[in-house]
Amino acid sequence: MVLLNTLDGIMLNVQRQGRITFYMTSYGEEAAHMGSAAALDPADVIFGQYREAGVFLWRGFTLDDMMNQCFSTHRDVHKGRMVPINYGSRDINFVSMSSPLGTQMPQAAGAAYAMRMSGKPLCVACYFGDGASSEGDAHAGFNFAATLDCPLIFFW
């Protein structure tokens, strides 16, 4: 958690210097994100937004991986084609983020439904914040997950 807090301070300054285009910190949310990630099975699928860097670190995303993504280098898993901090990695079962708020919520519900239909004893975790909770996609995701009894944890 100290590593993440330090990283956030450095990267926020880098963004304010204009060396990267976008960065969002997770100040005050480090323990909640890392603790919840620790409770998940490594095979559980995660959908998130831009404040869940702690989940990536917990799952094994390295600082090199994060910097390659933030600086859009050719070593980035997305080959520099994503907005900085829209992390994603198949290796750690974290679905690539989308910039518009709330879009991950119905996607997570669909993934959880597919997991339920496959019979796998796993779940999907979906992280979201205040902005996403007021989007129509949030309510679609909540409704879909509840109606179809999906193994989905919405984490606010």
TrEMBL record:
Q: Which InterPro entries match?
A: Alpha-ketoacid_DH_E1_comp, DH_E1, THDP-binding
Catalytic activity of the protein: N(6)-[(R)-lipoyl]-L-lysyl-[protein] + 3-methyl-2-oxobutanoate + H(+) = N(6)-[(R)-S(8)-2-methylpropanoyldihydrolipoyl]-L-lysyl-[protein] + CO2
Protein name per UniProt: 2-oxoisovalerate dehydrogenase subunit alpha
Q: Coiled-coil regions in this chain?
A: none
Q: How does it assemble?
A: Heterotetramer of 2 alpha/BCKDHA and 2 beta chains/BCKDHB that forms the branched-chain alpha-keto acid decarboxylase (E1) component of the BCKD complex. The branched-chain alpha-ketoacid dehydrogenase is a large complex composed of three major building blocks E1, E2 and E3. It is organized around E2, a 24-meric cubic core composed of DBT, to which are associated 6 to 12 copies of E1, and approximately 6 copies of the dehydrogenase E3, a DLD dimer. Interacts with PPM1K.
Which Gene Ontology terms cover its molecular function? Answer: branched-chain 2-oxo acid dehydrogenase activity
Gene3D superfamilies assigned:
3.40.50.970
Cofactor(s) the protein needs? thiamine diphosphate
Domain Dehydrogenase E1 component: start-end pairs:
1-155
What is one Pfam family matched by this protein? E1_dh
Job of this protein? Together with BCKDHB forms the heterotetrameric E1 subunit of the mitochondrial branched-chain alpha-ketoacid dehydrogenase (BCKD) complex. The BCKD complex catalyzes the multi-step oxidative decarboxylation of alpha-ketoacids derived from the branched-chain amino-acids valine, leucine and isoleucine producing CO2 and acyl-CoA which is subsequently utilized to produce energy. The E1 subunit catalyzes the first step with the decarboxylation of the alpha-ketoacid forming an enzyme-product intermediate.
Q: Which UniProt keywords apply?
A: Oxidoreductase, Thiamine pyrophosphate, Transit peptide
The record's similarity note reads:
Belongs to the BCKDHA family.
Spell out where the chain crosses the membrane. none
Enzyme Commission number = 1.2.4.4
